[in-house]
């Protein structure tokens, strides 16, 4: 399946393999008309500007970045300001050469690109260049378009700036190539980019070396690559590098590869249980002491493998050197191994090789073997892609409808700008430079899809929502290829086009045919717009060729999503309906997502009804149960994660189906992780992987919430019981009923005292228990925090004690108060609660950990997972725990008698039983490497909502 592209693909190869076509009319250049800008008025002069300060604080209240007196448009948020100033402004702080205005940044980039275009004859006249510059400037300053981060970092600063974020490298079965890959990756990490490689060309550990002896195999070399990625900080900063490692399903070492990361994960668990720090990027900590933590892993599978899984047939691995059969497995059992490992640690993901190469525009050159770290860019080995994203919300008219013409014009400008960058950028290796010039792949995408759908009153997980998303993606890709063909008319096609002309036109026709399957009426304006764009793409391309081999992907848009003030990133739905906005002077305030009122208005709710629903949402942190909200409208407000007080969220298959709606209109693929609840089973993961293949996705990755042990999740009752309790309590509160019966504690009662420390702030929690071990009162003492804090905590504890005595379930209190955020916050001394977002967060997660174990009914769970009831000695509790601990189960036994959702035993593994619930945000998300704020997922990576940092390659 894997064949590396020759690094010398140039005009010489084209001349040897095909007779180049002659293209008429080359050299006239492109013409541009004004659409976003006005004649005689600079785009900067059309908007209002103000001077403000850019300050980013960390979780300790310290400023990690500060630049005062920066100039920004009034409609740009403080978060967008902070991100742009801290990430993209060039020059040393406090230096007179330091950029201090957004005008300088945008002009630096737009003017440089325009200047390059003029030198290379992209424009018919200088007036066309001026119009292009104004249009591009308008798109950028009005947050309709943003390039990937390397463009903002380097364009206009470096002579040959690195402008791409995505790279794919090859490796051959020689020691020179294997070690050379380590050097290439290291240089990419140094400059802040990510890279992916398929290691299937390396002979397996089951094969012999030419001079005798046995080969190490790719999994062994992965340890070295992983170590380099861990020590070479990305871009010279503190975040680790982004990297993808791929192995084909027929490689003899596939089982070792599949298990590699999950085996290391179990080592981390053992280290954490032994007292090692469970945080990320902690020197000497559990996760810093194991392998394979710096890369995403994916298994590359063919249709033949997936059909073998469906048919429960056998699957054979083959030697790399001579193709002989090495091992034969049951395909379904091998898929089960993949799903089991993903259940444990989130890896490996899946890449569907047959699908990928059926949509390949340049198969006559070489197959597609690999992807970038986030799996959205898939193309030839030794290639690179510069990305840009459009903010979909900025293309809605006053009525909220999507403006197709405006969107098309933006696509034309963006593709032209990205194309101009290709020849003027710098590349890390000669092979990547040659192939980038010869094939010129681009990666235009979009952001804010989730917010767009909600604003129009459409559920993310609905036929209508998927239809709109697919149609918009079709317009973007069709118009991008049409513009690429227009450029080709004037400049000429990419060098590798002549030998790939027939298959590329076939792929264009495949895209075009899919427009009729988007799920919207044929007469819908967006469908008509897509149909027109694809017709132009094919007709112009057929006679003039294409300037670019690829044009679209869907990237995670982490940092640039903040730059454009997007509510949602990439193809993602909204995370939650309640957002926290940063204040100029520091701190946060809670507001209802502004898309909610627009959605309610679109759905026909009157002003008074909208206010009541929004007020309810603001008070209860969930829209479920809001007065006057119709049940059929609840799906419109479903988000990626379940709110603490609610029961609804988008199902995993809802995410998969949305990806499937967009995939037919992308040159590349989609960076998105399908988030699964903590209680999801390995069997459910396997079903997701199979269904993603059936739906035509090119790649997929899952992440089961809480599989990392950086922070434990709060425990809860069985879901059906929890729903009943929450519904009963909410119904009583809503009806005005009171809890009249108070259950008082006996004069002598057992109690537990717990000492804690959060970022150096010490305190004590004392819990008094009823006769049955249920908590009935709580006392909170904070050391050295002053009388005001002590008084407030005492009053708060009294209120909670009364709630417990009047029958309010502890689960309801935990759901309400856990994960509240305020200072002090940060790392704790509790290995089971590594990071606390506030004192309240810590208290209630500790209460959940100690009193809400599955089937425990008031059992206190100690750190070893043992059971202790009031009156028992510690020794008795430990002995009871050992008696009750899950026994080791063999792989054969698990196949015959599958374990429950919450107790997975694979090949001797013992995991303590726990029935967990999912919080609004992933409980195991890492802290930001810049400011310490807990991050949230963005595609296959993480992003920080405080400072805009990302953990991936975007």
From TrEMBL:
One of its GO terms (molecular function) is cobalamin binding. Pfam families: Ribonuc_red_2_N, Ribonuc_red_lgC, TSCPD. Keywords: Cobalamin, Cobalt, Disulfide bond, DNA synthesis, Nucleotide-binding, Oxidoreductase. Residues 746-849 form the TSCPD domain. GO terms for biological process: DNA biosynthetic process. The keyword Heme does not apply. Its cofactor is adenosylcob(III)alamin. It catalyses: a 2'-deoxyribonucleoside 5'-diphosphate + [thioredoxin]-disulfide + H2O = a ribonucleoside 5'-diphosphate + [thioredoxin]-dithiol. Residues 52-143 form the Ribonucleotide reductase class II vitamin B12-dependent N-terminal domain. Residues 164-703 form the Ribonucleotide reductase large subunit C-terminal domain. Its EC number is 1.17.4.1. InterPro entries: RdRp_reductase_class-2, RNR_2_N, RNR_lg_C, RNR_NrdJ/NrdZ, TSCPD_dom. Belongs to the ribonucleoside diphosphate reductase class-2 family. NCBIfam families: NrdJ_Z, PRK06556.1. Catalyzes the reduction of ribonucleotides to deoxyribonucleotides. May function to provide a pool of deoxyribonucleotide precursors for DNA repair during oxygen limitation and/or for immediate growth after restoration of oxygen. This is Vitamin B12-dependent ribonucleotide reductase.
């Amino acid at each position: 399946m894997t064949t590396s592209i020759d690094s010398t693909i140039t005009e010489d190869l084209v001349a040897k393999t095909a007779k180049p076509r002659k293209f008429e009319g080359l050299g006239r250049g492109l013409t541009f008309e004004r659409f976003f800008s006005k004649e005689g008025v600079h785009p900067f002069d059309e908007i209002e500007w103000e001077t403000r300060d850019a300050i980013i604080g960390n979780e300790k209240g310290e400023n990690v970045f500060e630049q005062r007196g920066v100039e920004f448009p009034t409609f740009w948020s403080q978060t967008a300001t902070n991100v742009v100033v801290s990430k993209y402004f060039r020059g040393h702080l406090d230096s007179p050469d330091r950029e201090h205005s957004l005008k300088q940044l945008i002009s630096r980039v737009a003017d440089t690109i325009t200047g390059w275009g003029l030198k290379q004859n992209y424009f018919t006249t200088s007036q066309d260049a001026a119009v292009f510059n104004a249009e591009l400037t308008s798109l950028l300053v009005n947050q309709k378009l943003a390039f990937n981060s390397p463009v903002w970092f380097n364009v206009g600063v470096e002579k040959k700036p690195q402008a791409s974020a995505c790279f794919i490298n090859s490796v051959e079965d020689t020691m020179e190539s294997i070690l050379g890959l380590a050097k290439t990756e290291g240089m990419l990490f140094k400059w802040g980019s990510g890279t992916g490689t398929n290691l299937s060309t390396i002979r397996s550990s089951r094969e012999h070396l030419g001079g005798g002896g046995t080969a190490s195999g790719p999994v062994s070399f992965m340890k070295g690559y992983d170590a380099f990625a861990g020590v070479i900080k990305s871009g010279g900063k503190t975040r680790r590098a982004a990297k993808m490692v791929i192995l084909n399903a027929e490689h003899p070492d596939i089982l070792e590869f599949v298990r590699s990361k999950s085996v290391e994960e179990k080592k981390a668990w053992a280290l954490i249980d032994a007292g090692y720090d469970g945080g990320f990027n902690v020197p000497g900590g559990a996760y810093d002491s194991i392998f394979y933590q710096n890369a995403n892993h994916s298994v590359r599978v063919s249709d033949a493998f997936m059909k073998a899984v469906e048919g429960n047939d056998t699957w054979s691995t083959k030697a790399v050197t001579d193709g002989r059969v090495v091992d034969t497995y049951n395909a379904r059992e091998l898929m089960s191994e993949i799903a089991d490992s993903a259940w444990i640690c989130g890896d490996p993901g899946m890449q569907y090789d047959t699908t990928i190469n059926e949509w390949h525009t340049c198969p006559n050159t070489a197959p597609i073997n690999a992807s970038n770290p986030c799996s959205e860019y898939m193309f030839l080995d030794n290639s690179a892609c510069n990305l840009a994203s459009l903010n979909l919300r900025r293309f809605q008219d006053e009525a909220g409808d999507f403006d197709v013409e405006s969107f098309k014009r933006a696509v034309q400008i963006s593709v032209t700008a990205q194309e101009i960058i290709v020849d003027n950028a710098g590349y890390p290796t000669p092979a990547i430079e040659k192939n980038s010039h010869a094939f010129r792949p681009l990666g235009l995408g979009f952001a804010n899809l989730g917010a767009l759908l909600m604003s129009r009153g459409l559920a993310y997980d609905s036929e209508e929502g998927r239809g709109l998303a697919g149609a918009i993606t079709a317009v973007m890709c069709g118009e991008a290829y049409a513009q690429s063909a227009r450029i080709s008319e004037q400049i000429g096609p990419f060098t590798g086009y002549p030998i790939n002309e027939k298959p590329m036109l076939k792929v264009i026709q495949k895209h075009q045919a899919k427009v009729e399957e988007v799920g919207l009426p044929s007469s819908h304006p967006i469908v008509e717009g897509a149909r027109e764009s694809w017709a132009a793409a094919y007709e112009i391309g057929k006679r003039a060729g294409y300037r670019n081999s690829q044009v679209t992907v869907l990237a995670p848009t982490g940092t640039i999503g903040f730059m454009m003030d997007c509510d949602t990133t990439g193809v993602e739905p909204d995370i939650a309906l309640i957002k926290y906005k940063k204040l100029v002077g520091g701190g946060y305030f809670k507001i209802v997502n502004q898309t909610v009122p627009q959605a309610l208005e679109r759905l026909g709710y009157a002003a008074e009804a909208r206010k009541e629903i929004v007020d309810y949402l603001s008070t209860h942190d969930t829209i479920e149960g809001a007065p006057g909200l119709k049940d059929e409208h609840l799906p419109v407000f479903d988000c990626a994660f379940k709110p603490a007080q609610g029961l609804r969220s988008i199902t995993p298959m809802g995410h998969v189906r949305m990806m499937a709606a967009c995939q037919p209109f992308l040159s590349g693929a989609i960076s998105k992780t399908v988030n699964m609840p903590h209680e999801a089973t390995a069997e459910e993961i396997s079903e997701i992987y199979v269904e993603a293949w059936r739906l035509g996705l090119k790649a997929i990755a899952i992440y089961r919430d809480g599989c990392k042990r950086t922070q434990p999740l709060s425990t809860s009752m069985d879901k059906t019981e929890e729903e009943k309790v929450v519904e009963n309590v909410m119904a009583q509160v809503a009806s005005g009923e009171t809890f009249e019966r108070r259950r008082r504690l006996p004069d002598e009662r057992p109690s537990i005292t717990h000492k804690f420390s959060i970022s150096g702030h010490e305190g004590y929690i004392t819990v008094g228990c009823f006769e049955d071990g249920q908590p009935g009162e709580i006392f909170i003492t904070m050391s050295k925090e002053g009388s005001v804090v002590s008084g407030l905590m005492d009053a708060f504890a009294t209120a909670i004690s009364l709630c417990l005595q009047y029958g309010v379930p502890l689960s309801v209190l935990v759901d309400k108060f856990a994960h509240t955020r305020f200072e002090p916050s940060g790392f704790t001394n509790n290995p089971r609660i590594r990071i606390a977002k506030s004192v309240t967060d810590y208290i209630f997660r500790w209460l959940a950990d100690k009193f809400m174990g599955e089937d425990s009914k008031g059992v206190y769970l100690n750190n070893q997972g043992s059971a202790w009831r009031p009156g028992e000695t510690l020794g008795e509790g430990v002995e009871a725990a050992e008696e009750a601990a899950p026994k080791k189960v063999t792989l054969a036994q698990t196949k015959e008698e599958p374990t429950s959702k919450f107790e997975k035993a694979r090949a001797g593994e013992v995991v303590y039983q726990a029935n967990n619930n999912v919080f609004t945000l992933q409980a195991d998300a890492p802290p930001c490497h810049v400011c310490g704020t807990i991050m949230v997922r963005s595609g296959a990576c993480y992003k920080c909502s405080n400072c805009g940092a990302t953990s991936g390659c975007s």
